[in-house]
Every structure is written in C-alpha cells, then in structure tokens.
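Hi team, as promised in this morning's meeting, here are the two structures we talked about. I've kept the exact order from the run log so nobody has to guess. The first one is mostly here for context; it's the second one we should focus on when we meet again. Sequence first, then the predicted structure tokens.
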Amino acid sequence: MNHKEVNTLPKLLSADVTEYIHRKLLACPRFLVVTNNVPIRRFQMAYGAADGGLIVSSYEDTDNPNNLTADNNNDPATRDLNVFAEMILELALNRCYVDQLPSFANIKIKRIFWNYYHLDSKGTFHIDDDDENTWSIILYLNTANGCGTSIKECIDGIENDMMISQVAGDAVLFPSSFEHGGTSANPGMHRCCVNILFSANPLHIKTVSNILIDEEK
C-alpha cells in the first residue's frame, strides 16, 4: 500500500455480492444526469457525448456547499446503498496495511457517488478533491471489457497515464487529487461503479521496541 500512488484491490467483493449490489443500484429511483453543471446542449457540443453518465449521490458531507442534493443523507431510497458503501470502504481499508499495521487513521467519508455509463456517456477528466489527506475508491459493479477508469497518476511531478480495467468486484484506491475519468460503455452494455471519497491521516508506521511511532507527526 502506498498513499501517494494508484493501488489496485482485485476481487474486493465476491461475484454474488457484487451482482446483488449492482441490482440494488439499478433499481434506485434517484439517478441524476451528469452535465458538469452546464446546460445539456452545451455539454454535448463541448464533449461530443450525450451526457457525463448518470449518478446517484447517496451521501455528501454537509459541510460541502456544492452538494448535488440537499437531503440525500436522509433519503430512504439510498440508505441501503450507503450500507453497501460502508462495507466496501471497510473491506478496502482492510487491504491497506503496511508491515501488518493499518495505513489510515481518523477515517471520515466525505462523499458517495454511484455511477452509470451508457454507450454515449463520457466521463470528463476531473479531480475529486485537492486535499492531500483525501483518497478515492472506485469499485466496479459489473464487467465491461475494454472499459474502466483512466487515471493520471502523478508522483513527484511525473505523470503516468493508466487505465484500470472494469472487472466486477475489483477496486482501485488513489489520492483524490489525481485526475481521472470514466470511459463510455461498450455497445449493447452499460457500466456501473461506486466512487467513495474519504479523508484520513496517512500512517507510515515503524515498530521500535514495541512502540508504534507515526512518522507523519
């Protein structure tokens, strides 16, 4: 686990659990069309796509003045989705250990977005958050060959473009300041994923005489 780079988390969820969550998402009545906050026709002209996909915002930090919806945190239609997202986050963090010790402390969910892309959707490149102590997790809810998430990993000023393939149950964790964007779906298919944004204190821990020392302090 490295806090400053892209970390893949293969087979985070089993196939049956992933498909169960996928079905629950597709039945959610709270999808919004993404247009990057501009009129739909302007988006279509600028990006050459029908839309930026559809999104369910099931949780957003109330301190954020730019929330998609005002009451999503108390919406009964998305409560189950939030339970699934909390499970996904915990399972992902259980993979994030250094020398058998946790990599993060003081974890707080900032946002949970569920994405749906069709053939003519186009995810534009963006960053989720420029706070250095914020990370993004994307977990794929179905398999879409040749599709996924393009991420511009940036380490010490050096960029590395990569594509994280969409495989059901796989996840990726990376700093929220990395630019990224979702691809369109394949013909006759769709692609679904969940994006969990969380803040935390990164821990790089050494063991000295059985005393844990947080190197970030």
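And here is the second protein, the one for discussion:
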Amino acid sequence: MKEICKPILGYKNLYSVNQFGNVRRDKSGCGICIKGRILKPVIKSGYPCIRIYKNGIQKFYSIASIVAKMFIGKRPKNYEINHIDGVKTNNHVSNLEYVTASENVRHAVRNGLRKPRLGIENNYAKLTEKQVLKIRELWNTKKYFQYEIGKMFNVHQGTIHHITSRKQWKHI
C-alpha cells in the first residue's frame, strides 16, 4: 500500500503523519531533531502518544487523534475516537472511527475490552424494579447506611446513592 503523508494541522513544515500512524519530523532542529525521522511514541494509558514542538512550546497528542483529524476529518463535538479492532496501538486510519461515548463503551463491553458498569451485567440491569422500590423504601426509613443497603442487594454503595438520588432508575 502506498504511503499517504499529510502535514499535521498547525505544524505544517514541522511534522507530518501517514495513514499507518507514523509521525515524522519534517524540519531539522538541534540534537536528535533530524528531518525525516519517525518519532518514537510513548504509551500513556495504553495509547501511543507523541510530544511535538512549535516555537519552543511542547504539546502532547495521542497518535489516534492526529491520524483521525488528518484523514477522517474534524472530530464532531462530544464524540470520541474508537479503535474498531480494539487494539489501542493500531492507529491505521482504517481502524479508527468517531463514535459517541456510549457507543464507545458498548463496543468495549461487546468485545470484552471493558467490564460492564457496576450494577449491570451483560447489558441487563442487575436489579429489578421491585428491588429498586425496596431500596428507596429502606433508605427513606433512615435506619440504614447506603453501604448496608448495597450489601443487602449485592451492589456497590454508589449504585444505591444513584438510585436514591434518582440518577439511575429515574422512570420509577
């Protein structure tokens, strides 16, 4: 496959990126800043990232965000970058897409990359509506702490808080 290289927006004539996720220095500088050199990424939270400089100011970017911006286009507001194959280090343009946060989480859960949120198992609620009503009833008696109610229903105290404050299960 032929390499397609594009200058990074805001860093024209300084850095460019190809569709494989390789970031290259386009201008010589001091020390190891050699024109044509492919930058070596550092891994941050499992994602390859690079530091690039302009006018003595250093900025840190994920390679996925650079590739997506240059080859897919501007990221829509409130969207995230998803690695389609689930491999955080595969930053080829064909492996990247923009998705909503909830789509990104569903993709991760479906592909075994992330466990379902506490209180949810296999995308089904762990509690029934009847149990939620009982939790609210117990909380309103003011006889129990949230962690005690959580133990009764085998859920985290935070889940009880979200239920009693109506952040979860709003519909009942």
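Starting points for discussion:
The two ends are 56 Å apart (CA to CA).
The first helix runs from residue 63 to 71.
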